[in-house]
Amino acid sequence: MLELFLCSLLTILPDYLYRRYAQGKRLGREITLYSVWFELRWGITTCLMLTIGLITVIFYNHPSSSNVTAYFRTVSILPETIGRVSQVHVGVSDHVARGQPIFTLDDTAQRAAAETARRRIVETDAAMVVARSDIAAADGQMRQAEQALQQAKDELQTKQLLNDRNANVVSQREIERLQVVVDGREGALAAAAAAKEGALARLDTLLPAQKASAEAALAEAEAELAKTVVRAGVDGRVEQFTLRVGDIVNPMIRSAGVLIPDDTGRERLMAGFGQIEAQIMKPGMVAEATCLSKPFTIIPMVVTNVQEFIAAGQFRSTEQLIDAQQLQKPGTITVILEPLYPDGLDGVPPGSSCFANAYSSNHEKLAAGGLGVGTALYLHVVDTVALVHALLLRIQALILPIQTLVFSGGH
Question: What does the angle CA 251 – CA 256 – CA 260 come to, to the nearest 5 degrees?
Fold first, then answer.
């Protein structure tokens, strides 16, 4: 409507003035309701053509979208194990800080496992004390075996000296018996030494390994015990959290609730623009937005990213072939808009529906020069008509609350 009014000022109005004052035709006589088309046919035709061209230039070079939303990501509240809820630490709607407990599962089995691991550590420490006693006992046995061996060797040496001096004093049988005694006591000494080595190996190798295993089991049990307390991973709000004591929570079936981070959905808007504007949308373009949740407000934005892929063309491999006819609507180009000022989206709740305009700028091309007269004139016109689109957005921001509350029954 605004474009038609502007174009009529350049076409129909001059045509009427020419008919009225140059040709002397009067409104209500020669120019009547029935003769308007014939008398003003050139102005009306030119106005319609110029209006269509102006609308095309405006909407192509300065695209707009009503598919703009402050999307936000929620964090699922899930335990790492299946269990029954024993305690809930937050309400249905509550703010939580990072690391704050949200709910606790029954931890009877985990506490029992941790206590068992602690008892194994104590048992291993006691076994080390016993191993030290065994080493001391083995030392005593070794000294006893050494003394007995030395005694047997001395006695054998004495008998052998006597036999060397006089063969009839000591019988050969007695010498052989003493030799057997010496060999036996050497074996007893070796056995005592082996017992000591075994006790040392048990104290230095086996028992420390068993203690390390018990400590690892304790750490594992304490980790499982810690999993029974579900904590907030980020600062945010827990909404519609209806979990109650006695509920069974299974992470494979459903989550216990959702956590909405404080900063999610407050940094950017995601807009879907038509595919025909793919060559126009570029990062760095200035944009404006107005949201239903913050009426009468124009938010300065800037295009920070243009997604290179159109989501409507995505498919997942199945046992059926994709038929292009199944795509009922052409997809849109996803564009990320961020506020030009740090507090631009303050007061806009995440999930809000918005309207946005993006504006092309040819200032750098015009400043660089080297353009033809027609091209420079066209680029000047393109930049100038952005004012019309900006005005349309402001009119939309003014009438949007009235349209929502009065005409659509949105109250």
Answer: 115
| Segments making up each domain of the chain, as ranges | 1-61, 63-71+265-314+329-411, 75-106+229-261, 108-227
Q: How confident is the model at residue 358 (pLDDT cuts 50, 70, 90)?
A: very high
Q: Could you list the beta-strand ranges (E) of 173-242.
A: 229-231, 236-239
Q: Rounded to an integer, what distance in angstroms lies between the CA atom of residue 100 and that of residue 81?
A: 19
Q: According to the 3-state scheme, what is the secondary structure of 288-327?
A: EEEECCEEEEEEEEEEEEECCCCHHHCCCCCCCCCCHHHC
**pLDDT of amino acid 97:** 92
At the topology level of CATH, where does 75-106+229-261 sit?
A: OB fold (Dihydrolipoamide Acetyltransferase, E2P) (2.40.50)
pLDDT digits (tens, 9 = 90+) for 219-245: 988 888 888 898 988 898 898 888 888
Quote the CA–CA distance of 100 and 106 in Å, as a whole number: 18
The CATH label, of 3.40.640.10, 3.30.420.40, 2.40.30.170, 3.30.70.790, for the domain at 63-71+265-314+329-411 is 2.40.30.170
Which pLDDT value is given to residue 409?
58
Q: What is the pLDDT of residues 167-194, one digit of tens each?
A: 566 566 666 776 777 677 777 777 777 7
Please, are residues 282 and 272 in contact by the beta-carbon 8 Å criterion? no
Q: What is the predicted pLDDT for the residue at 164? A: 66
